[in-house]
Amino acid sequence: MRPVLLAVLIALALPVVANAQTSKPTASSAIATALNDPARKADAANDERRKAADIIAFTEIKAGSRVLDLIPGGGYFSRAFSAVVGPQGHVYAVFPEAYEKAEPGFADKLREVAKQPHYANIEVLLQPANRLSVPAPVDMVFTSQNYHDYPDKFMGNVDPAVLNKQVFDALRPGGLFVIIDHAAEAGSGMRDTDTLHRIDPAIVKKQVEAAGFVFDGESNVLRHPADTRTKTVFDKSIRGQTDQFIYRFRKPAA
User: Fold this and answer.
1) Beta partners for residue 249, in sequence order
2) How far apart are CA 183 and CA 228, in angstroms?
3) Which residues have CB under 8 Å from 80's CB, separation 6+?
4) Pairing between strand 214-219 and 171-182?
5) Four-point Cα dihedral 39, 43, 44, 45, nearest 10
6) Which first-to-last residue range defines the signal peptide (predicted)?
7) Predicted confidence (pLDDT) per residue in 111-158, tens digit
8) Is the separation of the CB atoms in 152 and 194 below 8 Å?
């Protein structure tokens, strides 16, 4: 191949490689239809703020997918995932027992939702924080603003290595682990998990990769560069505007 032609081909390919690490997938019509489900009327008011369409597209789930929503809180994403995966899919909403003691009532409320025929594909599970398991391998494990909690007292000081290994085991080969969390200062490691409820993105990436995952990309839709990362996420001046990272990790197919 002539040198000039080779250089042109390389130049054209470079932007594709760079963008693979900071992707913002276009939400499909199936996702739009799911989010417009009339049953989600109350949730829909928060879709733009929470970037639901972008995040769901980033998770790569589709009709028939099996999803594990780890510590779903009020169930916002569990209900959205339910609409996307449909009756042939399944959503395991997993609450650690320690979390249920600290934040009682969330699991029961989501169980009531799951009793509705419309949300029959949601299954609520209550488990020890250090014993994550599901009845069948899943396509995606998702946790939003919770990863930083595992090393802390109220969750039983669970080593993130234990969590990541169990997530790895819960996934099918090629499955995805998607983590959203509040960013702490670069180089801070896990210093701020209990005080500011933040975690250094770099330590998350290091810990998850150590479990055997391959980093598969990130989304910047919840980034807020004005956040100094030095205040607690509950500070009124920053709440709802914290700098959040979204990382996607893939379990190797073989």
Assistant:
1) 177, 215
2) 10
3) 34, 35, 40, 43, 52, 56
4) unpaired
5) 140
6) 1-20
7) 999 999 999 999 999 999 999 999 999 999 999 999 999 998 888 899
8) yes
Cβ neighbours of residue 94 closer than 8 Å, sequence gap 6 or more: 68, 69, 70, 71, 72, 125, 126, 127, 132, 134
For 38-250, give the CATH class: alpha beta
The domains of the chain are located at: 38-250
**Cβ pair 157, 149 in contact under 8 A:** no
Q: Max alpha carbon distance in the chain (Å)? A: 68
Half-sphere exposure in the Cβ direction for 203 (13 Å, CA):
22
Partners of 171 in the β-ladder: 138
Give per-residue burial for 144-172: e unless 16+ CB within 10 Å, then b: bbbbbbbbbeebeebebeebbebbbebbe
Tens digits of residue pLDDT in 209-241? 999 999 999 999 999 999 999 999 999 999 999
Q: Which two tokens stand for residue 107?
A: 């699991």
pLDDT band at 6 (very low <50, low <70, confident <90, very high): very low
Q: Which range in 26-35, 151-160, 176-185 is most confidently predicted, on average pLDDT?
A: 176-185
pTM greater than 0.85 (yes/no)? yes
